[in-house]
């Protein structure tokens, strides 16, 4: 009986993994320019971190976590997102006390959510995200938004839409919350079971319900923007002004509600508007969070960040027909004939590799013609032909596969010769 990978997971095989490596490198380089440093946190955490951090009333905590008891009887959860872990680490390592603030992190790694798998929605997916902790300056909100957009634009995506909202501060949200309860209460019985609970626990979540989306009360629901107090309004205005000075276009959507509880002030999503992208159009999301650091045991400090999945980024690149400049070929292939030559080839390939040249050879005892075929299939730029005769003469035959040109090079000069060829061809 054969065993397949679990539903909602995937193997990333050569041919695709080069694309992953390329985008991961590009994203890391983008972070370097914005001065965000890499943080790596564990893949599993104490369940309580997400219950408190992400929020008990969210779908993620209620329905989607991979939670299990470890052999020591502790409740452990595979991380469904990165922010709670980053904040936990920031508090645990007392990073808030270090001189260089704000703290700017980026992360990349697998996350786990027990969701119904479909295109762009996996049970294991890789998130790239950033978090800036320790500053309440609206300019850093704008910086995060710029990095988020740029991460798509630099890879060549064009059909993007930045959707922005403000969820206000605590006071504004409480006023909005009361208004939402007043608004939806008369329709309580008509709402789904989940929303009836949400109305008591976290009425904002009602606006995000997939089942009740078409209920007439949704359209007339009070907008958060009407309940922003002066500080929150001013904060939102400043974020928008900074976006304007950078020439970043956005659409304000007062109904934008994020799937996690920790947000206030700035909340945003980036959508793909490319045709054929699929049913799920959200590429990434993020926002500001004020209560989270304190919730996890740290000081009253706020942060802002966003995350995207690499899976959806690659889907968007495909939908917009962007070809990434990934080289799946090979620098050179060593064609070998004869026992003595075989020994010399083992030595030579090793020396070439140590000199920085990408090289492969045959390990299946293939005939010369078949070795040439293999070199061709692998997309090798050069073929080095080494037979016992060449060995005796102290030479090696170098064939340029693009031009078909052949040249005899002295064996003791081959490494320098190839180094020049490869560097020159780049
Ligand atoms: P999120 O909206 O839950 O936010 O997820 C962010 C992004 O992760 C989504 O926009 C999507 O690209 C990707 N994603 C989420 N679930 C899946 C899935 N099942 N399959 C594939 N991709 C998925 C967060 O996780 C927050 N931690 C973002 C954040 C960072 N907020 C502040 N800082």
3D architecture notes:
The chain is α+β, with helices and mostly antiparallel strands and 426 residues long. It is built from 15 helices and 16 strands. It has helices at 17-33, 47-53, 59-64, 83-92, 138-153, 170-184, 193-201, 216-219, 230-245, 292-295, 310-319, 339-354, 368-377, 388-393, 414-425, and strands at residues 37-38, 44-46, 66-69, 75-78, 103-112, 124-133, 160-166, 251-252, 263-272, 282-289, 303-309, 330-337, 359-361, 380-387, 395-400, 406-410. Helix 5 packs across helix 9. The chain folds into two domains: 17-169 and 229-319, BirA Bifunctional Protein, domain 2, CATH 3.30.930; 332-425, 3-Layer(aba) Sandwich (Rossmann fold), CATH 3.40.50.800. The longest helix is centred in the first third of the chain and has 17 residues, at 17-33. The site of histidyl-adenosine monophosphate has 27 residues, from strand 6, strand 10, strand 11 and helix 11.
Topology (SSEs and partners):
Layout: H1 17-33, E1 37-38, E2 44-46, H2 47-53, H3 59-64, E3 66-69, E4 75-78, H4 83-92, E5 103-112, E6 124-133, H5 138-153, E7 160-166, H6 170-184, H7 193-201, H8 216-219, H9 230-245, E8 251-252, E9 263-272, E10 282-289, H10 292-295, E11 303-309, H11 310-319, E12 330-337, H12 339-354, E13 359-361, H13 368-377, E14 380-387, H14 388-393, E15 395-400, E16 406-410, H15 414-425
Parallel strand pairs: 1-5, 7-8, 12-13, 12-14
Antiparallel strand pairs: 2-4, 3-4, 5-6, 6-11, 7-9, 9-10, 10-11, 14-15, 15-16
The structure holds histidyl-adenosine monophosphate (HAM).
